[in-house]
Structures are given as structure tokens and as C-alpha cells.
């Protein structure tokens, strides 16, 4: 199994509406991309200072399924239209679990 983890920090001028739209649009992806096995996209719980503000954890059966997700036009559209305009920083990794 491949676990994809992405962490975002938003720009200071990102609005609450923009942040909510990112979550809404990302949460639509499991219904569009059947290769997604499990998917969580949400704001940080605010427990520890210094954390990123938003995270995605997605599981896939194999690398090929992850690549379908990574390159899927709807996923790329969410990135281009909703994430890139408000992103200050991003960290990501893929784990073999």
C-alpha cells in the first residue's frame, strides 16, 4: 500500500472561504477517482504550535493507483484553481506501508 501525505501552510491573505473551498474540492476526489482507497483532507486540529495548517492523507493499493490520482485532471484542477493561489508552503511524502 502507498500512503500519500501532504501538508500545506496558507498565505496570510488566504480567506476562510478559500480554505474551506480547498477542503470541499479535495473531499470530492474519492467519488471521482476510484483508485483512492482511503482519503482524509482537513485543517490542523490546532493542538501544537508551528504545525502546517492543512493536511491530506490518502491511501492507494499500489504505486500505479497513486500515479492515477496524482495526474488525474480533476486533482490537477483543484491544485491549480484552489490550492496554488493560496499556498505559502507544501511538504509531501509517499510511504510504502
Task: List the defining traits of the structure above.
single chain; alpha+beta; four-stranded antiparallel beta sheet; 4 strands; 35% strand; globular; 97 residues
Beta-strand percentage range: 35-45%
Shape: globular
Largest sheet: 4 strands, antiparallel
User: Gap between N and C termini, in Å?
Assistant: 5 Å
Question: Secondary-structure element sequence?
Answer: EHHEEHHE
**What radius of gyration results from the CA coordinates?**
13 Å
The number of distinct β-strands equals 4
Helix count from the secondary structure assignment: 4
Mean pLDDT rating: 98
* Main sheet: strand order: 2-3-1-4
Class derived from helix and strand content: alpha+beta
Q: Which residue ranges are poorly predicted, with pLDDT under 50 across at least 5 consecutive positions? A: none
Helix content: 25-40%
Secondary structure elements and pairings:
Blueprint: E1 2-10, H1 16-27, H2 29-32, E2 36-43, E3 54-60, H3 63-71, H4 73-83, E4 87-96
Antiparallel strand pairs: 1-3, 1-4, 2-3
Helix pairs in contact: 1-4
Protein architecture, described:
The protein has helices at 16-27, 29-32, 63-71, 73-83; strands at residues 2-10, 36-43, 54-60, 87-96. The protein is an alpha+beta fold and 97 residues long. A four-stranded antiparallel sheet has the order 2-3-1-4. Helix 1 runs antiparallel to helix 4 (73-83). The N and C termini lie close together (5 Å).
